[in-house]
Amino acid sequence: MEKATLTFTDVSITVNVPPGTRIIEMSEKVGSGITYGCREGECGTCLTHVVEGAENLSEPSALEMRVLSENLAGSDDRLACQCRVLGGNVKVRPG
Amino acid sequence: MSVPPFALRPPAPRTTGPEGPVTVAPGVTWIGALDPGLRSFDVILKTSNGTTYNSYLVRGSEGVAVIDTVKAEFTGAFFKRFEESASYDEIRYIVLNHLEPDHTGAVPELVRRAPQAEILLSPRGLPMLRALLGAEFDNAKVRPVTTGHSADLGDRKLDFINTPYVHWPDTQCTWLADARVLFTCDLFGSHFCDGRLFEDQVDDFRLAFDNYFDRIMRPFRSFVTSALDKIEPLDFAVLAPAHGPILRSAPRDWLARTRLLATPRRKADSAEKVLLIFYVSAYGSTAQLAQAIHDGAEEEPGVRVSLFDLEGSDISPFLDLIEEADGIALGTPTINGDAVRTVWDMLARLVDIETKGKLGAAFGSYGWSGEAVRLVEARLQGLKMRLPEPGLRVKLHPSPEELEEGRAFGRRLAQQLTGTAAPREIDFAELAAR
Ligand SMILES: Cc1cc2nc3c(=O)[nH]c(=O)nc-3n(C[C@H](O)[C@H](O)[C@H](O)COP(=O)(O)O)c2cc1C
Ligand code: FES
Ligand SMILES: [Fe+2]
Ligand SMILES: [Fe+2]
């Protein structure tokens, strides 16, 4: 199986993950400060800044795009409840 | 003939207020409403002087703009003042600086009466406007605006300044450059009803101004500071908030006051990182653990550690300390399957200050099930804190080895603060088991 890693810089923890894992599946367990409201891509609470490896995340859906733009998100910001790590190394911190 | 034991006095001008619209600046009119009887606002704030909902009308050579409205019960007063100032077909813009119901009560009806009007609001307000207008949203003319955008009224224009989280995601300010009026909605507001409306004419509202900040804005103090940074360069003559007096004789003083209120109450007295350890202990076990964590953390240079028995003080002074601290660790025994009441009281009060991004940790002694630590951790995460160290639990009285674990836990917390903690790697399966 291909390997992927996701690093939460605010708690200095790297998780080895199966490709396809969503950030939301890990961030609370490692104690990262990323927080969630709706958990389904609507509220923008889980806005997360991608420090490295943005290209290794799944493409944003139309809903995620809308919520990101309504939240005036930067080009390296994503919704942690939506995006998946597809492979390689990704580093994130709370938005 | 009997004489009443007290003389009947006419109602004070501060509760009756102006009959019609009031001129604020050339072509700018107050068309809001007074709510002198209000005694509690948003459930979270007492209002001994009632409040006002300030709505404004700006007239240009090519139409008028309505800036914010009022709470639903006051729609009648709002429309009456509006109709004395303009007609519905003149409305070119409805500016919504904030979508909370105390300012949008008249919006659905206003949109029905002025379907041609373009609704201008920050992008973060869109989901709330959809909820407010329901099925009518799709027919309304809506334009999201942010800093750099403006709206043309012919001989004058409105500029928008995006100032999020003062105190909702959607909040913005609107700037009328030619009249030097800044419409700030809740920012610079106070719950203080005085129908004379202007800062230089009303009763003393300083307490209401500070209280409004403390209850509504303090949890967002760094957002307030960034909003002030954006506003300060403007050459404003009038700050026109949506609650309480209009600030026109010393508007810069109110801005300075707000800056002071947005500064942590207790400034750190050194460059060291600050770690605060709070605990409650029935038989001394959690207290011993707290002391061990303190001693361990203290070994780390660059960290100032302090220990407090939560039962020894009111909570408010602790909040002032936590506001400026870099991290907190909370200790509680498990009693009846829960953290103790004093700890929950403290956790409940933490919403009054900004906790986002601070380091949090929980620890405690337990007898057989030990739920408390996990419950506190979940709450700290809910407060947007980061919890790099899983909580430390000890069964009953800590052994010497467990006290050593406590010291190591303290050292690791301190290292997280100084940025010297070693990076860790963990496997997904191990994590999933947590
Ligand atoms: C001071 C204040 C803060 C609020 N904060 C939040 C929030 O953080 N998240 C949220 O989803 N809604 C928040 N709201 C919105 C309320 O949940 C919303 O207005 C709700 O409809 C109020 O319900 P009620 O009519 O039962 O009081 C806040 C409202 C107020 C007044
Ligand atoms: S939690 Fe609401 S968008 Fe992710
Ligand atoms: Fe508000
Ligand atoms: Fe308000």
TrEMBL record, chain A:
<dbReference type="GO" id="GO:0051537">
    <property type="term" value="F:2 iron, 2 sulfur cluster binding"/>
</dbReference>
<dbReference type="Pfam" id="PF00111">
    <property type="entry name" value="Fer2"/>
</dbReference>
<dbReference type="InterPro" id="IPR001041">
    <property type="entry name" value="2Fe-2S_ferredoxin-type"/>
</dbReference>
<dbReference type="InterPro" id="IPR036010">
    <property type="entry name" value="2Fe-2S_ferredoxin-like_sf"/>
</dbReference>
<dbReference type="InterPro" id="IPR012675">
    <property type="entry name" value="Beta-grasp_dom_sf"/>
</dbReference>
<protein>
    <submittedName>
        <fullName>Ferredoxin</fullName>
    </submittedName>
</protein>
<dbReference type="InterPro" id="IPR006058">
    <property type="entry name" value="2Fe2S_fd_BS"/>
</dbReference>
<feature type="domain" description="2Fe-2S ferredoxin-type">
    <location>
        <begin position="2"/>
        <end position="95"/>
    </location>
</feature>
TrEMBL record, chain B:
<feature type="domain" description="Flavodoxin-like">
    <location>
        <begin position="275"/>
        <end position="414"/>
    </location>
</feature>
<feature type="region of interest" description="Disordered">
    <location>
        <begin position="1"/>
        <end position="21"/>
    </location>
</feature>
<dbReference type="GO" id="GO:0009055">
    <property type="term" value="F:electron transfer activity"/>
</dbReference>
<comment type="similarity">
    <text>In the N-terminal section; belongs to the zinc metallo-hydrolase group 3 family.</text>
</comment>
<dbReference type="GO" id="GO:0010181">
    <property type="term" value="F:FMN binding"/>
</dbReference>
<dbReference type="InterPro" id="IPR045761">
    <property type="entry name" value="ODP_dom"/>
</dbReference>
<dbReference type="InterPro" id="IPR029039">
    <property type="entry name" value="Flavoprotein-like_sf"/>
</dbReference>
<dbReference type="InterPro" id="IPR001279">
    <property type="entry name" value="Metallo-B-lactamas"/>
</dbReference>
<dbReference type="GO" id="GO:0016491">
    <property type="term" value="F:oxidoreductase activity"/>
</dbReference>
<protein>
    <submittedName>
        <fullName>Flavorubredoxin</fullName>
    </submittedName>
</protein>
<dbReference type="InterPro" id="IPR001226">
    <property type="entry name" value="Flavodoxin_CS"/>
</dbReference>
<dbReference type="InterPro" id="IPR016440">
    <property type="entry name" value="Rubredoxin-O_OxRdtase"/>
</dbReference>
<dbReference type="Pfam" id="PF00258">
    <property type="entry name" value="Flavodoxin_1"/>
</dbReference>
<dbReference type="InterPro" id="IPR008254">
    <property type="entry name" value="Flavodoxin/NO_synth"/>
</dbReference>
<keyword id="KW-0288">FMN</keyword>
<dbReference type="InterPro" id="IPR036866">
    <property type="entry name" value="RibonucZ/Hydroxyglut_hydro"/>
</dbReference>
<keyword id="KW-0285">Flavoprotein</keyword>
<dbReference type="GO" id="GO:0046872">
    <property type="term" value="F:metal ion binding"/>
</dbReference>
<dbReference type="Pfam" id="PF19583">
    <property type="entry name" value="ODP"/>
</dbReference>
